[in-house]
Amino acid sequence: MRLKLWAGACLLGMATTAFAATDYPSGYTKCAQVGSACAMTGTHTVALGKSGSFVYATLTGNFTCQTSLFPSNSFTASAWCSVGPTASGGSSSSVASSIASSKSSSSVASSASSSKSSSSSSKASSSSSSVAGGPGSGFWPLKGDVGAHDPTLTKEGSTWWQMHTGTGIQVRYSNDNGVTWASTPQIFLSRPSWWKTYVPNHTNLDVWAPDLSTYNGRVYLYYSISTFGSNVSAIGLMSASSISSGSWRDDGLVIRSTASNNYNAIDPNLTIDKDGNPWLTFGSFWNGIQLTKLDKSTMKPTGSLTTLATRSGGIEAPTIIYRSGYYYLFVSIDKCCAGVDSTYKIAYGRSTSITGPYLDKSGKDMKSGGGTVLDAGNDVWKGPGGQDIYGTSVIIRHAYDATANGAPKMLINDLNWDSSGWPKY
């Protein structure tokens, strides 16, 4: 269901020049020119634009129309703000492009144009050299709002976007090559009604392990809802024409699991095979990591499940990428979500087929507990995991900062490859 159009919540700000019909989108209400105040009640999608071109943000209450509220825009003081859909109800809401006050995640989880696999996709890594941060800088120097758990990463135009576990799916962005990160409003401002049907004990807006990808010109945001320690879970899907548009469609349930299943439907990851076909991998504990093929139109499962990896001590958070003839499966293993006492690690294996078998560097099948460890953390960064990979050369994950009472924070690194085709930092 899409957002309902707003009516009657905006009190017009004072304007100094004419406000033409082409200066605000159809269905929006004119409010103020850049530099003027706009009085508004509630939370709404706000457009900034002129002459039929617009960028969007989600704002709450009174605000001053200013270009700094809208990253990735090229408008000047002659542009206008106008108010559109309410973002306070229904099962869909806007990802804002506004610079909001810093938030931190309120929960942690237990956890051929694809943004995950094809080097020609919109999530493929940039080939430009780094100035301070960004691809080519090794361990990226991050600052700003870096608190995160189970982060996913992509780039749209010159803006990096990161989303992670938390209230309503938390959203961050960076306009300086991935160095400085700021908050924007969360994806969900209210619970879609169908969540309660499949996960009756789910409460509030606790959403886990989002996965952000682009396929065939559309952005897909897979996410999961569950309760800690249970496999009564569901994976849902939102989609949009672009992240910056802020207009997300609720595409509903993708797959669920119940207490009678031997798998857990959380931690989704969209990947595209070498022939351009979409697949979804997911899973946490129980019978491990699962894979299913998706319909290209609905982006939902069309066939049965294939088990890719299992581990007695815990396995979850799969990510699959394709590189130079191999599919690489990255997973998080062992104990998550215990702060500095976490034993989480990132491990991997590879296969010539997306359905496996995935073997580690020693030749052990990941279905039999195999997996070569890429990252086990260090004295400062404990329990790294919940990873995502942008293209084939950038990896993001969370780890617990031992110098900050075990707070979960995002880390971004270049992902390199040795002469035998195995990943390394």
Compact summary:
This protein has 425 residues and is mostly beta strands. The protein contains 1 helix and 30 strands. Keywords: Glycosidase, Hydrolase, Signal.
Spatial sequence of strands, sheet with the most strands: 8-13-12-10-9
Shape: globular
Given helix and strand content, the structural type is mainly beta
Mind telling me the C-alpha Rg? 21 Å
Give the helix proportion (percent range). under 10%
What low-confidence regions span 5 or more consecutive residues with pLDDT below 50? 1-17, 87-131
Largest sheet, described in full?
A: 5 strands, mixed
Count of strand segments = 30
Mean pLDDT: 83
Strand percentage, roughly?
35-45%
**Ends distance:** 42 Å
* Total DSSP helices: 1
Region (Disordered): 112-134
Keywords: Glycosidase, Hydrolase, Signal
Family: Belongs to the glycosyl hydrolase 43 family.
Pfam families: Glyco_hydro_43 (PF04616)
